[in-house]
Specification:
The protein has about 110 residues and is α+β, with helices and mostly antiparallel strands. It has a domain of about 70 residues: Ribosomal protein L7/L12, C-terminal domain/Adaptor protein ClpS (Ribosomal Protein L30, Chain: A). Helices cover about 40% and strands about 20% of the residues. The protein contains three helices and three strands, in the order βααβαβ. The protein has a three-stranded antiparallel β-sheet. The N terminus is likely disordered. The structure holds L-tyrosinamide. L-tyrosinamide binds next to strand 1, helix 1 and helix 2.
Length: about 110
């Protein structure tokens, strides 16, 4: 794949052209991993519900991730473009707060 715009330069054919490389305007969105953190108080069923509601998982997948987090301390809920990941983190933390659970969620660059 060609990167950079090789057509956009100053070469007028006179042999004195200064070649300028223009940066491509379009970048791939960087991907961010959303992580769920374990705690001692949030009920397991609540975590399973959160994974279904905000990450579109079926009950089986959600239970599997929840148990992984419960046992290992942290787990991957999915990888998303920055703004989607940020929204999911906020949604999880807000929903947990409203239900008075300390469940925490964070994100890291993939
Ligand atoms: N450790 C919690 C409990 O024993 C369950 C739990 C799982 C909490 C995953 C948070 O991200 C979490 N009730």
């Amino acid at each position: 794949m060609m990167s950079g715009d090789d057509h956009n330069n100053d070469d007028d054919g006179a042999g004195t052209g200064v070649v300028t490389k223009i940066k491509p305007k379009v970048k791939k969105p960087s991907l961010w991993r959303v992580l769920l953190l374990n705690d001692d108080y949030t009920p397991m069923e609540f975590v399973v519900f959160v994974l279904q509601r905000f990450f579109g998982m079926d009950e089986q997948a959600a239970a599997q991730i929840m148990l992984h987090v419960h046992q290992k301390g942290v787990g991957n809920c999915g990888v998303f473009p920055y703004e989607i990941a940020e929204t999911k983190v906020s949604q999880v933390i807000d929903f947990a707060r409203k239900n008075q659970h300390p469940l925490q969620c964070t994100m890291e660059k993939e």
